[in-house]
Automatic annotation (TrEMBL):
It comes from the Bacteria. This is SIR2 family protein. Keywords: Membrane, Transmembrane, Transmembrane helix. It holds the Pfam family SIR2_2. The keyword Ribonucleoprotein does not apply. The chain crosses the membrane at residues 24-44.
Length: 285
């Protein structure tokens, strides 16, 4: 079930050791980008409703969700190019704001060898650049051929604004990814089977992510070595018993907090984790 207070100390110790040993993956969701001012999915839905001349009173656009609306946008306009351009303009914050974000600073400090993100924006890349840390961005199979093993790999799991073809935005895009046979899916399965996972900035409602976690659990459940599976964690500021129980069944430990503000809760958690990693590295903080 969800871990609170002192019960989380053992999990932080295990996570810190995995990070220190470069055996951990950080998976970053939209909640991390929203702390520096990026719009919510609702803002995207509202924009598409206006562009498509849909009336909220007669067209249940918000209820349909952004993938179906983006699919309709592609049908109406022939491509998502204009929508992608709008998102690129609107989903952009200043370098200064990212540099001043304590959450982004802590992510850089922690030094994960692998960071996966479903965010399209460049905030993680900007954070690494601002703090002078090397990284390799991977958004497609071409990028895989240039990525070194020493620098942190930032894997844009749902695409990147610099490559329209890589974006997972419409319903067709999401359905295509459900087969999990793209080069990035193959890479993630291989990486995830041998490393500790930590998810932050997620509500864990994303169907692709939940199905991917289920597939990993299935792979381990069929293995005679399932007792050797590395641990996986998700930090959720508020976690109910149903969600925690389902994720626990898949081998995901839910970490939570008594702090009611999501940004403050995540910052506090990452501070504790970074402090322990620094101790293991022999660094003063």
């Amino acid at each position: 079930m969800a871990r609170f207070g002192r019960d989380m100390a053992t999990d932080i110790e295990d996570l810190a050791q995995s990070i220190h040993d470069r055996r951990a993956i950080l998976f970053v969701g939209a909640g991390v980008s929203m702390v520096v001012g990026l719009p919510s999915w609702q803002a995207l839905i509202d924009h598409m409703m206006r562009e498509l001349l849909l009336e909220a009173e007669t067209d249940p656009g918000p209820a349909l969700g952004h993938p179906i609306l983006a699919e309709y946008y592609r049908i109406r306009h022939g491509s998502i190019g204009p929508l992608r351009s709008w998102m690129d303009r609107e989903w952009k914050v200043s370098e200064e704001r990212v540099r001043d974000s304590r959450i982004h600073q802590l992510i850089v400090e922690l030094g994960f060898p692998l960071i996966y993100t479903t965010n399209y924006d460049r905030n993680l890349e900007v954070a690494f650049e601002s703090h002078g840390r090397p990284f390799a961005k991977i958004a497609n199979e071409r990028d895989l051929t240039f990525a070194g093993s020493e620098d942190t790999q930032i894997v844009k799991f749902h695409g990147d604004f610099d490559d329209d073809a890589s974006l997972v935005l419409t319903e067709t895009d999401y359905f295509s990814r459900l087969s999990f046979d793209s080069p990035l899916d193959v890479k993630f399965r291989a990486d995830a089977m041998s490393r500790t996972l930590l998810f932050v900035g997620y509500s864990m409602q994303d169907l692709n992510i939940r199905l991917l976690l289920h597939r990993i659990w299935e792979s381990w459940s069929r293995s005679p070595y399932q007792d050797n599976r590395p641990p996986s964690y998700v930090f959720l500021p508020c976690a109910g018993p149903a969600q925690a129980a389902v994720l626990k069944r898949w081998g995901i430990t839910v970490l939570s907090s008594a702090e009611t503000d999501p940004e403050a809760a995540l910052t506090e958690f990452l501070e504790r984790l970074a402090a322990r990693v620094a101790e293991l590295r022999g660094e003063g903080r």
